[in-house]
């Protein structure tokens, strides 16, 4: 049920909720008490708790995944922990968020700014989508702006509008004896900043007020908080598909992609070392399996440049993959293509679906290794059977007999979600 709170209640509660003391209150480590009854702060409190209620509830739920990580890094840097709410109003804690201005990630960096503050943004990796590095970059930027303007709220405005805009506003107007955060609110009253920037700090304060006491505003998200991801990390220095890593980690591609949102092609880069996250407890197993995996089975990145008249479905048929495979591998939002556009073809899928003779010739970033010999030689019509033993998985059996996991599953009418049990008999293709 929506909690309707009149403006006068906000004013009367401000002292009771935030306490009387200099600087940041006991409940907050950014200045809130002084501005809690500001008209635009009240507007955004009302907006978040009524018209945008469903969206804000999702923001609160997502916060559970990132709260500890962001607060820990803010505290270590000497910034107030409540600057976490800047990420909330920027992206709603959506690590894949993309704005109309092509700002990306939790902290909504555009590419040039991201690179300036130390993030990698290229054809293979976009660290704007990786919450940890993106948070570190945001901290560097906020710290620089705070040092420049002497106010966290002017720093926040500079984060939104750019430091040049704030510097120009401060040069244009005489704010007399005002200093610190009061200067932002004085500048916001002048016809200089865009409405988005004038409202940026009031939104930040409103988000903090509600998030610190959600039950007061009728939100009950404690049972639906997103849990922090638990993972181990390993170093990979070659191209390997996230779908392959998922198979080696005995999980789904979706899980690996969620842990590694920075790999924009669904493939690790072929030209550098990167950290790859896998489910907690799987690091050693995945490392060993990757070491044993022939290079040709990691992934061979086939590059296709779109020609005039080509469609995604036509390209998919050419390579023996599906349109959805191409969309996932290239993070395509639509099926529209541009002439000259570079597409990555997920050849792990191609090997599973297309006969060798039908595979097209294309440029490759790595040379495929000869196929792994099978464990035993059999005639074309003979059938090999295997009785599952304790501790075996479909993956370990496929490796034991030198066959692909998809082929083993298909031969037995199984999917990747199927469970196998000791004593079960499997056909080895």
SSE arrangement:
Layout: H1 7-18, H2 39-49, H3 53-77, H4 84-91, H5 111-116, H6 131-149, H7 152-161, H8 163-172, H9 181-188, H10 195-198, H11 200-212, E1 231-236, H12 242-248, H13 253-259, E2 274-279, H14 283-292, H15 295-298, E3 301-305, H16 312-319, H17 323-330, E4 342-346, H18 347-353, E5 363-364, E6 384-387, H19 394-401, H20 405-411, E7 425-428
Antiparallel strand pairs: 1-2, 3-4, 3-5, 6-7
Helix pairs in contact: 2-11, 3-6, 4-11, 6-7, 7-8, 12-13
Task: Give a description of the structure.
This protein has 429 residues and is mainly alpha-helical. Helix 12 crosses helix 13. The N terminus is likely disordered. The chain starts with 6 loop residues before the first helix and ends with a strand. The protein is elongated and about 85 Å long. The strands form three sheets. Strands 4-3-5 form a three-stranded antiparallel sheet. It has a two-stranded antiparallel sheet with strand order 1-2.
Q: How would you summarize this macromolecular structure in one to three sentences?
A:
This protein is mainly α and 429 residues long. The chain contains 20 helices and 7 strands.
Distance between the termini: 58 Å
Order of helices and strands: HHHHHHHHHHHEHHEHHEHHEHEEHHE
Order of the strands making up the biggest sheet: 4-3-5
Mean pLDDT: 84
Using the alpha-carbon principal axes, give the shape: elongated
CATH topology of the largest domain: Lysozyme
Give the uncertain stretches in residue-range form. Answer: 1-7, 14-26, 348-382
Number of continuous helical runs: 20
Instruction: Compute the CA-based radius of gyration.
Output: 27 Å
Number-wise, the strands total: 7
Secondary-structure-derived class? mainly alpha
Taken together, the total number of domains comes to 4
Strand content: 5-15%
The CATH architecture of the largest domain comes to Orthogonal Bundle
CATH class of the largest domain: Mainly Alpha
Helix content: 40-55%
Q: Summarize the main sheet.
A: 3 strands, antiparallel
């Amino acid at each position: 049920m929506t909690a309707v709170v009149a403006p006068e209640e906000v004013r009367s509660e401000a002292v009771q909720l935030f306490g009387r003391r200099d600087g940041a209150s006991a409940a907050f480590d950014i200045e809130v008490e002084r501005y809690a009854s500001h008209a635009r702060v009240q507007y955004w409190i009302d907006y978040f708790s009524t018209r945008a209620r469903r969206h804000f509830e999702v923001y609160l739920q997502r916060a559970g995944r990132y709260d500890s990580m962001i607060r820990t890094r803010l505290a270590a840097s000497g910034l107030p922990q409540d600057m976490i709410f800047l990420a909330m109003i920027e992206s709603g804690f959506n690590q894949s968020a993309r704005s109309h201005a092509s700002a990306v990630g939790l902290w909504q960096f555009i590419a040039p700014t991201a690179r300036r503050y130390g993030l990698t943004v290229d054809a293979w990796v976009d660290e704007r989508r990786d919450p940890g590095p993106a948070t570190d970059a945001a901290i560097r930027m906020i710290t620089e702006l705070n040092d420049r303007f002497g106010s966290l709220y002017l720093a926040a405005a500079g984060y939104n509008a750019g430091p040049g805009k704030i510097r120009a506003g401060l040069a244009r107007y005489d704010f007399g004896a005002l200093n610190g955060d009061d200067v932002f609110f004085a500048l916001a009253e002048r016809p200089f900043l865009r409405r988005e920037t004038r409202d940026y700090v009031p939104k930040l304060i409103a988000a903090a007020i509600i998030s610190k006491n959600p039950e007061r505003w009728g939100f009950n998200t404690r049972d639906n908080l997103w849990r922090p991801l638990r993972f181990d990390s390993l170093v990979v220095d070659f191209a390997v598909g996230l779908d392959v890593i998922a198979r080696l980690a005995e999980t789904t591609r979706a899980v690996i992609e969620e842990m590694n949102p920075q790999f924009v092609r669904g493939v690790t880069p072929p030209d550098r070392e990167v950290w790859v996250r896998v489910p907690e407890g799987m690091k050693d197993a995945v490392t060993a399996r990757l070491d044993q995996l022939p290079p040709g089975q990691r992934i061979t990145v086939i590059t296709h440049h779109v020609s005039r008249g080509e469609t995604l479905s036509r390209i998919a048929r050419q390579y023996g993959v599906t349109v959805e495979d191409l969309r996932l591998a290239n993070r395509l939002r639509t099926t529209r293509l541009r002439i000259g556009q570079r597409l990555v073809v997920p050849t792990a899928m191609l090997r599973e679906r297309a006969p060798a003779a039908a595979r097209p010739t294309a440029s490759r970033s790595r040379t495929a290794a000869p196929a792994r010999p099978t464990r035993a030689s059999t005639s074309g019509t003979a059938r090999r059977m295997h009785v599952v033993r304790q501790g075996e998985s479909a993956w370990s059996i496929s490796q034991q007999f030198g066959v692909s996991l998809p082929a083993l599953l298909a031969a037995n009418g199984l999917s990747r979600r199927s469970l196998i049990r000791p004593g079960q008999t499997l056909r080895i293709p």
